[in-house]
Write a structure and sequence with these properties.
SH3 type barrels, 26% strand, single chain, 2 domains, five-stranded antiparallel β-sheet, 202 residues, globular, alpha/beta
């Protein structure tokens, strides 16, 4: 678990501590790291987060570093949880958005603590009831629900009509012949080995 809170670093440290050092005897500890507030969040997560990881951010909706990291979650193959208060981020900004309808920073901060304590407790409920973590949606080699959709991918390098991209499945080469040449860091939708649109194009 990667914990980030650029404006309130004490929250990212608190989230990490909860998961690394559970206070209930016999509960499982989980690897969790607080990303330092003075580091480039996207660059740090790009090099450290792996498929299957989770990124939890405690931040306002207008935090550009958190927004940029959250929108790359699908391309990186990570779950994203955005906790905040006040005006909400746009729909789909993260896989899971936990938002408080308050502009009072003190009230919000207190409620954030309750929210991530609840997440910690629900995580342990899932560990104790393994059936909650299984899914039988994809029974064949190709998933019926997602086989026709574009997959998000982040551009790593560009070489002529091809790009090396990062997806939830790992690194792969994709054809760029039907879109304008992207830049490293751009998010693309990829289908059947071809980039079909650039999500970062103006």
């Amino acid at each position: 678990m990667w914990c980030a809170s650029p404006a309130w670093p004490f929250h990212s440290h608190h989230v990490a501590v909860e998961f690394v050092h559970p206070v209930i005897m016999g509960k499982r500890a989980l690897p969790a790291v607080a990303v330092p507030a003075d580091e480039d969040l996207v660059a740090t997560l790009r090099t450290t987060a792996r498929t299957g990881d989770i990124v939890v951010a405690v931040a306002a909706a207008d935090d550009p570093a958190v927004a940029a990291a959250m929108r790359r979650g699908d391309a990186w193959g990570v779950e994203t949880v955005w906790i905040g208060a006040g005006p909400r981020p746009p729909s789909g900004a993260a896989k899971h958005v936990l938002w408080l309808p308050t502009d009072d920073p003190l009230q919000a901060s207190e409620q954030f603590v309750r929210m991530y304590h609840l997440l910690w407790e629900l995580t342990h409920v899932c560990f104790e009831h393994q059936g909650l973590l299984t899914s039988d949606d994809c029974l064949d080699d190709v998933c019926i629900t997602c086989s026709d959709e574009g997959r998000p991918a982040e551009v790593l390098t560009v070489d002529g009509d091809e790009a090396l991209v990062r997806t939830a499945e790992g690194r792969e080469r994709v054809d760029l012949s039907i879109i304008d040449t992207p830049r490293p860091g751009d998010l693309l939708l990829v289908h059947a080995g071809s980039a079909i649109t650039n999500l970062d194009a103006a």
